[in-house]
Amino acid sequence: MNLSFEFYILIIVLAIVAIVVLSIVGRFISLWFQAFVSGTPISLFNIIGMSLRKIPPRVIVNARINSYKAGLKQIEVADLETHFLAGGRVLEVVRAMIAADKANIPLTWKQATAIDLAGRDILDAVRTSVNPKVIDCPSDVKGQGEYIVGVAKDGVQLLCRARVTVRTNLAQLVGGATEETIIARVGEGMVNSIGQAETHLEVLGNPQAISQLVLDKGLDSQTAFEILSIDLAYITVGENIGARLRADRAESDKRIAQAKAEERRAMAVAMERENLAKVEDMRALFVEAEAKIPIAIAEALRAGNLGYMDYLRLKNVQADTKMRESIGNPEEEQT
Fold this sequence. Notes:
The protein has 13 helices and four strands. The protein is an alpha+beta fold and 335 residues long. Strands 1, 2, 3 and 4 form a four-stranded antiparallel β-sheet that branches. Strand 2 and strand 3 form a beta hairpin. It is rod-shaped, with a radius of gyration of 53 Å.
């Protein structure tokens, strides 16, 4: 009787263990059956091994089914597992591969996984390659300005905005420059092309020629995009920079001339004052010499070199000279 009781206990334990095992393995069996009926059989042990390797089996199984049904039979389960373990987005890469295959865009699994691991949105890149997108130049990013500003040779400023139609170049998506480089190159090309125009009227009369000139420069080299077209969405006349510069130069020349004239005037005033000072010095010497004349006359009288009658004649000459000067300069006499 004890033997039969222990037998029942063993049966119950085995049944419980079987239920637990079936409950654990049940979800793997459903994935295995899903892959089997989809025509892409994956071994049950491989599915269980994915779980043990911390890989979500459902993601790998769904990716494998999608790729196989889309005709991408070269993608193996091991490739999917490797990309997941590398930190990639398996389902996004498979969807991108399917979209590229349907659009006849050459894209290998190695390229797709490299693009995904580089941090690029591989599915968006394929969509952009199929359906080109338009980039505003300059963009609405703060700090890039509202317009591209160029100046023609006649000095007139032109304000314009361009729309650049691009599609993704999958071959250069890894390591290629991004949209910011395209915007910068197009802006630089527009400024350069406007600067080569003789007058701003040439640009306003034929803006497409400027766009074509920029397009012919190969601005999409070493970038992740291929430029399809560059179109001027808006163009208007700005300030006349040449006239303003000429006016500023004329004003500067006038100030320089005024400064030089003021310098010459100051030098003339200084020279005039210097001459006046010299005149005053000579006048002082003259007065000093005149003051010595009476002393010399007295000395001559005492020494007998000058007679009294000679002295009187000298006084008469002086008086006569003074009278003639007063007659010739009546205004000085009145003062």
